[in-house]
What does this fold into?
Amino acid sequence: MSRKTKTEIAEIYRQIQDHICAGLEQGDGQGKFVEDRWTREDGGGGRTRTFQGGAIIEKGGVAFSEVHGPTPEKILRKLGLKEAEFFATGVSIVLHPYSPMVPIIHMNIRYFEMDNGVHWFGGGIDLTPHYVDAADARYFHQEVKAACDQFDAEYYPKFKAWADDYFFVKHRNETRGIGGIFYDRLSATSDDHFQQILDFSLELGRLFPRVYSHFMQKNSKIPYGQEEKAWQNLRRGRYVEFNLVWDAGTKFGLDTNGRTESILMSMPPQAEWTYMHQPKPGSPEEFTLNHLKKGIDWLSFE
Amino acid sequence: MSRKTKTEIAEIYRQIQDHICAGLEQGDGQGKFVEDRWTREDGGGGRTRTFQGGAIIEKGGVAFSEVHGPTPEKILRKLGLKEAEFFATGVSIVLHPYSPMVPIIHMNIRYFEMDNGVHWFGGGIDLTPHYVDAADARYFHQEVKAACDQFDAEYYPKFKAWADDYFFVKHRNETRGIGGIFYDRLSATSDDHFQQILDFSLELGRLFPRVYSHFMQKNSKIPYGQEEKAWQNLRRGRYVEFNLVWDAGTKFGLDTNGRTESILMSMPPQAEWTYMHQPKPGSPEEFTLNHLKKGIDWLSFE
It folds into this structure.
């Protein structure tokens, strides 16, 4: 099988964006995506789609981009290169639900190549529940593992540990949520391998609307009050802290003159900060904080 | 006149914290500071004071710290040094008012020295109005200039430009607010000069409660509604973006295992994000955005 070209990969990722948007509109049952097309001065552009008028999803978006041009200085320096043209395409998603009982979710798949032949895939999917729930965590990790296992038995354990390390709010000594998988700089060693990694990223794109629809249907029915909303806003504050302080993708985008509104689509609609907030002993909030840790085996978590 | 020792400077800064807290409690007329004392594992500690139950100030704090120990790797590398003990003391303030008509304010004074004889002062004061108002901007910059001019006629123009550059939200292409002054790595060339820079920082500490009390009294009487509150929350979102993405002090603190709750005392109580928000043409919100620019001469701004 011959290797897909960058243009073909971009087209495949565009279709994945369509698939995800259709699935989320169906899952929410009320809201619709509104598309914003943009072009990049140095080459390429994107289709940023934000969710409007949702019943379950309060704010979020599914962004596709396909950009090219001279490789940013930062990447060149990292790779020890003087000059190269780059091409990058990807789909990026963050969804913030109204209900604190429904988790925040994030997914990203991306492909990068340079005209000197260097290429890699990256991506991942991870869940940030405002309240950690054992059954939800098991379900999510089992689904992600099943998707991984279709391609490589090493993927889940390796990429799960990578997500624990990546989605870590160092200054709080807590993980952003219950993780999932994260991978980067995955380069193919053969044409078959290339197709396999590409197919893996597509499988994540198919998994996403299915898994999140499950949470939308089930968790949006759970009652909650002001206390849970207040906690949600504090957790959203932590989400902001991770994304603006530690997320390599966000930092890179803001640093290299990326499209700010598309990058910061990940921001919650609202967030709050309280000095020295401490959850009540024995509360679900305390349980959550105690489980924002690396290395938890969520597959069998009780 | 002999040079003040680091211990004496810390004591002077401690008194400045007391002076500022007393002035702000008087200005607010209702709220009180609550003190949190903490110690640092590697040496030193601080008194973080947060404002509680305010009539005008919704959230904020006045933090004093005096820390010492082995110099963080990051600073050593920057200075090309292998090893040195450091000492740092300072007062740091951020205040977020309830009313969108009252500006956010920030001030910092700090002193740093190493056992190899290197020393410097840094600091500044800057204003972030939710709504730019010509008279308020003139008043603020004139007061700051008057404080600077008592010490050195070069201070205001130089440090005003420095603030424009420093408090810049690069990914939004806008300044955080209307600036003020910012200075860093000011080293003394004589004992008299040392005393002069120290006195300058104390003058800023005296200026602070006076200037902010002016805004508290005057601007808290201006009526506002839901539209202004919504705009305030968007502006608070930009404040968060600047502090977490660009502020060197915040980044350094979070990176070097500083006391997170004291560093993030600067976060607003609440913030909001809206995709692609555009103020109405001709509105005060648009006027504000149009004046979040570097290089404006606020002293004579009409």
User: Anything to note?
Assistant: Residues 115 and 164 of chain B are 33 Å apart (CA to CA). Chain B has one domain: 6-300. The beta strands of chain B are 32-39, 44-52, 57-70, 85-97, 104-114, 119-128, 168-169, 174-175, 179-186, 270-272. The radius of gyration of chain B is 19 Å.
